[in-house]
Amino acid sequence: MTDLSARLERLTPAQRALLDRRLADRQAMVGVGAIPRRARRDRARLTDAQERVWLHRQRLPDDPAHNVPSAWRLRGRLDLDALTRAVYAVMARHEVLRSTYELDGDQPVQVVHPHLPFTIPVIDLRDLPADQREERMWQEARAEGNRPFDLGVGPLLRMLLIRLADDEQVLVRIFDHMIWDRASMGIFGQEVAGFYRAYVEGGTYDPPPLPIQYGDYAEWQPQWIEREVRVRHLPYWRRQLADVPPARELPTDHPERRGATNRSGQRYFRLSPELTEELRRFAHEERTTLNVVLLAVWKFLLHRLTGAEDVVVGTNSSTRRRAETEPLMGLFLTMLPLRTTVRSELTFRELVAATRRTMTGALDHHDIPIGVILDELNVGRGVGLGALYRAAFIMVDFRHEAPLTMAGLELEPLMLEKQTVTIDLSIGYFDEADQDHVYGMIEYNADLFDAATIERMWQQLDLLLHGAVATPDRPMAELPTPPGDGDR
Prior knowledge:
Elements: H1 3-10, H2 13-29, E1 43-45, H3 48-59, E2 67-75, H4 80-93, E3 99-104, E4 107-112, E5 122-124, H5 130-145, E6 157-165, E7 168-176, H6 182-201, H7 214-240, E8 264-270, H8 273-285, H9 290-306, E9 310-318, E10 333-341, H10 348-364, H11 370-376, E11 391-397, E12 410-414, E13 425-431, E14 439-445, H12 451-470
Helix pairs in contact: 4-6, 8-9, 8-12, 9-10, 9-12
């Protein structure tokens, strides 16, 4: 059995049906016509997703909420010159890495430069006592990760090298969301690693030429929205969000501080291997995914916290449906408002079934810019998604991502927190192939919530996860709450 066949065999019926639909979509897109290269190469319009980021930045130009920081701990001898050359080579391939943003009349545009300077500054901590280096490294990495970008001055990516020893260093990488999504990080990492290996070992690295550039996609997108999105996807969202009520406020500790600084807070957690296995087993029995099961519990917690039965949660989705867009760096993300009726008398099994229907419908019509939905609902794009929901859910499946390797170096990914947030409350789950458990993070607006409140929230969620999977036919209202903590 081939590796592909083995992976297909492991898919649940729901996952296989989704794959079949996406393959059918891909086949249908063949008749739409290729994305053409634009005539003017030095600039392009913004995509719908970029426009939302642009509007936020016009209101809050110094807000680093759209910074995407990450870091690698690199063990081994790093060739800094080869690394810098490798980044230059990737920038040469991708116009979006050489773009800045400005107004052309009253319209924002992306301006493509033939070349932008790029350096990797170094902070050397080797002279510090060994017991001080790690703390100082985290201080420097977090400070760099939260330094805002100026959209008019590129490039909109930065790197910082922090030396801890002769054969150990931390490489901090920061992208602006105007040019980044999760797939972009994988593309960037693989291409940098390929060029780096060629430069340090004296070989060659020749990735296939890019069929188009991000600016070509941006110029093509309005035609696609009119021909495809408004005809095929918008009717579903019009029905799904008909008469949707304004987003219910979460019970925050300091509502008077809304909009103060939007400071980010994090509460990390880890599901036990036993609980993870039970959740996977239940998902398999219900012919659905772990993603849906975890989302159902999150929705019930929001129902318990707010009393709302009409629960809308935001989740992100890729708009990379076409073969031309798969190798491109750029922002190909949309947000999907997942609306489900949640009542306390529902059993967990019933709630999962309802959540599955919500998720299936959304994924059938996921290829729609959120701006189109906001326009349909007559919600100003500058208002943001807070008019639809106050909480988000994200699950990142690392199980099928190719591991990144760099010549002569051992890589350890490090997680850097963002300084500010754009949504009140979100939960992210992370699933890795070599782990027997799922881990995650609750990220929250620390101006609105105290850490103790988020801790109680996690305790409720943990009890719900255990109780729901243990007694899936019991009404959710009967599941336990933490001692001394009634429904708020």
